[in-house]
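sorry for the late reply, my laptop died twice this morning and i had to redo everyting from scratch. anyway the thing you sent over, i finally got around to it. pasting the sequence first so we're on the same page, its 333 residues, then the predicted structure underneath. double check i copied it right bc i was rushing
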Amino acid sequence: MKTTLYLATGSGLAVITGSAEDWHGKIRLGDKQIQCVVVDSNRTGVAYCGTFGDGMFRSQDGGTTWKAVGGFSEPNVMALASTHSGAVYAGTELSAIYRSDDSGETWNELHTLMTLPSAKGWSFPPRPNTHHVQTILPDLATPTRLHVAIEAGALVRSDDAGATWCDRVPGSPKDTHALAVHPQDPMRLHSAAGDGYFESIDDGDSWRRTVDGLGHQYCWSIAISSVDPRTLLLTASNSAYGAHYKESAKSFVYRRSGNDSWQQVHDGLPSPDGLRIPVVTASRLDSGVFYCCADGRIFRSADSGLKWQELAVQWESSISDDPAMNVAIEEEA
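ok and here's the structure:
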């Protein structure tokens, strides 16, 4: 099986391809600040990435070459999502959602997002005069439903593919960084948020904050095991400073299975001291396999996140230790 990992970093898009013990890495768009990346759900080898300041790019050859997406004029693309129905969604700063139904050739803005009452209070602390779409989750239970997280202020939903929007529900996270769902449990949504870990068992109608055992509650990235929809990995820190700023970095990886408490996992991973918050993803085809991307290093677990081994990636050029903001995975059997 061939696996490709795409890592969005502040100094380019890292593309790591391999299988077993043979892994190769390259940096593409090295002069761009990459914010997000997604693989096309329907076309092998097609991926999109969003940048801060330079718009959106698309690859049609497995990440080897990238070209700017025509017809998309927004410079700050902060979130991307692809659906099995063929739609691609893009979220921007200032908060807006765009949809393409032709693989990124043309785009339509879903105009009603900013009419929500909570929009008046949306604000991103480092740039308080603005806010942005942080993550987009197409719904697996209801094809016309779309979940969107605003950084910072709300987790909102559309039930008609973005024509209209429903505002945040009471008790929902206000600062979601990542959303996840498993196809075997499509009504259960998972939110890694700056205000903790949240879970919905009714497709976003209500939420509960579940932090038993979670000693660090600024949460960033979440992944679900391909073979068990109740086995999760979560990355966390004490605060945004501990997560993202090198001089005060201290970050952790947690694991939870079923209704158990969260437990830190350490075996084979870097020390939390000095570690900026990692991103995690799960293999869809390789049972129990997770990947953790931490400060320019890639780790793999074959036992559902309990033990880890660093991949010996052969890079075609020197790389930085920039942390990944986002990760996407594509696999070919």
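The chain is about 0% helix and 45% strand.
thats about all i looked at so far, will dig more tmrw
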